[in-house]
């Protein structure tokens, strides 16, 4: 089997080098770039993201990242969003009363969690569907590393990309929120697999196996 080629999309946001090292570690040939041709031609595209929703969207649009994501998905080409890189896949984000338009790949709103302690920072378990490919081989008590104050709290899409029913994974911090999604070629996690040790590496390896 040929080594999968993965691009980490460089749009000015995200832990680019830690994501690069994590994906390399599980067996991919990785390039960090904003070059549209490389991003479109790679076997897999990772969209990272940290910080404010609005700033991430501004950076993403500056490199036509929303168009790159859309073109890849239209061709059934895998995309993995991480943290705010997951959040910007939804229709909108609301921070401090300001609404920002997302890429709109999924319906829904990213807004502030209702919890006694924010940010939600540290290790937490998730509730994945039994037939999840992303979490295959991982125990139910496996913990992943989260750093966020905003999340999607309701899932609004019934039918998914490529005619497949979306698989939604949940976590809880004060209230339930979407922790991960598998929707045809578009997968995403609210937590950071690149900061989640062996569990994160296992999850990234599961994603790489879909690129063949």
From TrEMBL:
Residues 7-208 form the Glutamine amidotransferase domain. Pathway: Amino-acid biosynthesis; L-histidine biosynthesis; L-histidine from 5-phospho-alpha-D-ribose 1-diphosphate: step 5/9. It catalyses: 5-[(5-phospho-1-deoxy-D-ribulos-1-ylimino)methylamino]-1-(5-phospho-beta-D-ribosyl)imidazole-4-carboxamide + L-glutamine = D-erythro-1-(imidazol-4-yl)glycerol 3-phosphate + 5-amino-1-(5-phospho-beta-D-ribosyl)imidazole-4-carboxamide + L-glutamate + H(+); L-glutamine + H2O = L-glutamate + NH4(+). Keywords: Amino-acid biosynthesis, Cytoplasm, Glutamine amidotransferase, Histidine biosynthesis, Hydrolase, Lyase, Transferase. It comes from the Bacteria. Heterodimer of HisH and HisF. This is Imidazole glycerol phosphate synthase subunit HisH.
